[in-house]
Amino acid sequence: MLKKSIAIALALLLVMGMLAGCGQQSGQQQQGGEKEQGPKEIAFTISAEVPSLDPQKATDTYAILVGHHIFEGLVRVHNGEIKPGMAETWEISDDKTTYTFHLRDAKWSDGKPVTAYDFEYAIKRLLDPNTASEYAFQGYYIVNGEEYNTGKITDPDQIGVKALDEKTLQIKLKTPVKYFLSLLNFISFYPVRQDFVEEMGEKFAADADKLLYNGPFILKEWKHEQELVLEKNPNYWDKDSINIDKVTIYIVNDANTAWQMYENGETDWEFIPAELVEQVDSEGRAMYFYDGSEFYLQFNVKREGKPWLANENFQRAVGFAIDREALIKAVMKGVSEPATRYVLPQLEGLEKTFAEEYPYEFYSKNADVDKAKEYLQKAMQELGISDPSKMTFEYLTDDTQRAKLTAEFIQDQLEKNLGIKMTVKQVPFKQRLELMTKMDYDVVFAGWGPDYNDPMTYLDLWVTGGGHNDTGWSNKEYDELIQFAKTTTDFKARADALFEAEKLLVEHGPIIPIYFRQRAWSCNDRVKGLVTNFIGATFDFVYADVE
Amino acid sequence: MGRYVLNRLIVSLITAWVLVTIVFFLVRLLPGDPFLSEKITPEIRANMMKYYGLDKPLHIQYVTYLKNLLKGDFGYSLRYKNRTVNEVISQAFPYSADLGIRAVILATTAGIILGIIAALNRNKGWDYLSMFIAIVGVSVPSFVIGPILQYVFATKLNLLPVSQWKSFAHTIMPTFALSLSSLALVARLMRASMLDVVNQDYIKTAKSKGLSPFQIIWKHQIRNAILPVITVLGPVTATLLTGTFVVEQIFAIPGLGKFYVLGIQNLDYSLVLGMTTFYGLFLIAANFVVDIIYGLVDPRIRIAR
């Protein structure tokens, strides 16, 4: 369940991450050398069927992974770097709201040219309410995008996207969006061709032969629930940079089965099942990367009869009473990083990462019981409560084993360190979301994955009336900081404002960061140039090679 | 007889209708809705509800669903966009059926042989061995057997592939893992039945006629002992054909089992309904056939009803 929640939460674009040079132990490489003749093949597993490869309808992590390799947007993000994709060059207006892209000569897999009209059609299709795209909100930055999607206007020609000719595409934004280029690498913005989509109708993207490809690979075979086979695209404009000829992606739901396949040499890389992490690590074969997900405690400050949930000092007391490092060690075998701040450390700042440019550590990695008690005292004074055990609350979480262990750990810490009693309520994922939406909870253990490579993807959640702000928290200063950051063209002032907002949220808001998730994985020595990302395609093998 | 068949047919159709109706409303009572996700906004959710017709009043949705169902159309999956439930089922069921039928064959043949061996060697080594296998089969679930098989035969001995469903070698471990508990059931039943038959008068008669032991066992004992086993074949077949979920998970077989669980997790109404209806009709049809056969074999049954 948690995995699923992450699949959805995780989502999106942009790369960044680390070049996982896979072959860490070069000692045991094969000396064969003569294998150059045969086609270069790699294989790996994913844990579930890809629900949809229709670029404008796809939302899940596997569609994003596969889509990154079989399609190409205006730009291509590789290892955090924005490179020209279908667009060869582009200009950005002085007010940073008008983007003009000049497309290169590129072909669809049926040999017809990729044009600016394909992009215009795709973006309008994304925003069309009749497409019922879950990720339509990615197009809300564009002039009239939201208005069209929510039915306030009905003429698609009012949307700020237009093909000026076959090779020129113009996109107009409502406000300057610092991360807009990297956003264009996201699956929702990949082109589709009108005549093909209309010819296929409801069957579009249902099978390998019901899609057109313009990326480095084409989907040769799609055996539902079984495997996807990718082959190098002979029509791809940059085909000389692509080394891999064939990629087989097996759909294997059981993590242990997937691991056995890897151990048997049937696949080239795999996530390590939790119970084996220590063993594989001791053999020097484990690697780790951030998958972009952050988990935190979220307080419902409008909860009737429980005024302490709205009390800042009570919230801080809970935050300092939890030993994050011990939690990670106990529940996740040490794989993940304690969150002592709110913004994911890997997100992009001006030149370096946001965390490097704005270092900040409010919570400690271990429990700070003295500080926690201090905050609790203040809270009790403010609330006129003398017995901390009266300040009970219910902790809402998913029905997975990991969620249960996490809950029990936190329950134990609060009782031991503060004398606060919390009860645990475990429900299925969808039910948790519904309870959150209805604000029918006390405290929830929730998570979020970035939609784009910018701190805003975490921070704008908590503005007053925000679609995802299920806390009831409202802070005028916070709203103003976010609003400023969304409209200014001065990116330094913008970053400053985001940092102020982060501090405000962490020190006074209803969110207690717990950890930034990492994944443990292992990879064959023979694979080179495989990139892992915390945003967008989890694995990027576009430029990978095998020995 | 014609009236009896008609009777059974009407009962079957009513059963099917009740099943569809109950599931149709029950699945909508589950908390949450199909499009709830961490990222979705209320407006986009409304768009999606409208697109799939879920914004209409429940009774209208119900009537529409029944109409489509009569045409054999289960509708589009809410999660696997662009794929109909009919497609999902027709792509996945052959794998489950293939696995299930293999398991039925293995469970019955091996089970019967094991039971016979045990009975003929009562309280000797072979008996103990057979019954040990039977007890292991009943008590160790397939989610334990599966990974053990994978570890021993694929990872350690490298004899068989870890998972998937591509060649005969791929089918061996899943078939065995799935059939083991039924195999054990059949073996125990066959053994008990054989021992029961051995004390019957006609066996004594056969002995006194001077028939050879082989003839007695083959012609009289096994033939009579196998009847109770045949009566459990129906339920065993149903269990094996519909109970493939765990084994399919472990061996990454693209069968139908997982869609039930995934359908409910994702609140994919049309998929859950389609699956239930499909399996429901499958079982109802099987029962119908069994009823008819009973009626043919034993006139008392059709008169009693």
Class by alpha and beta content of chain B: mainly alpha
Q: In oligomeric terms, what are we looking at?
A: heterodimer
Give the total of beta strands of chain A.
22
Low-confidence segments of chain A, ≥5 residues, pLDDT <50? 1-21, 23-35
Main pleated sheet of chain B: none
Strand content of chain A: 15-25%
Q: Major beta sheet of chain A, specifics?
A: 7 strands, mixed
Largest interface: A-B, 62 and 51 residues
Extract low-pLDDT stretches of chain B.
none
Beta-strand segment tally of chain B: 0
Indicate the proportion of strand residues of chain B. under 5%
Structural class given helices, strands, pairing of chain A? alpha+beta
Could you tell me the radius of gyration of chain B in angstroms?
Answer: 24 Å
How would you summarize the topology of this molecule?
The complex is a heterodimer of chains A (547) and B (305).
Chain A: H1 2-10, E1 17-20, E2 41-46, H2 61-70, E3 75-78, E4 81-84, E5 87-92, E6 98-103, H3 116-127, H4 145-149, E7 161-165, E8 168-172, H5 180-183, H6 194-200, E9 217-223, E10 227-232, E11 246-251, H7 255-263, E12 269-271, H8 277-282, E13 287-299, H9 312-321, H10 324-332, E14 337-338, H11 354-357, H12 369-383, E15 393-398, H13 401-418, E16 422-427, H14 429-437, E17 443-448, H15 456-459, H16 476-487, H17 491-508, E18 511-523, E19 527-528, E20 530-533, E21 539-540, E22 545-546
Parallel strand pairs in A: 2-11, 15-16, 15-17
Antiparallel strand pairs in A: 1-20, 3-4, 5-6, 6-8, 7-8, 9-10, 10-11, 12-18, 13-17, 13-18, 14-18, 19-22, 20-21
Helix pairs in contact in A: 9-12, 10-13, 16-17
Chain B: H1 2-29, H2 42-51, H3 58-70, H4 85-120, H5 125-139, H6 142-156, H7 168-197, H8 201-208, H9 213-242, H10 245-250, H11 257-265, H12 269-297, H13 299-304
Helix pairs in contact in B: 1-12, 4-5, 4-7, 4-9, 5-7, 6-7, 7-9, 8-9, 11-12
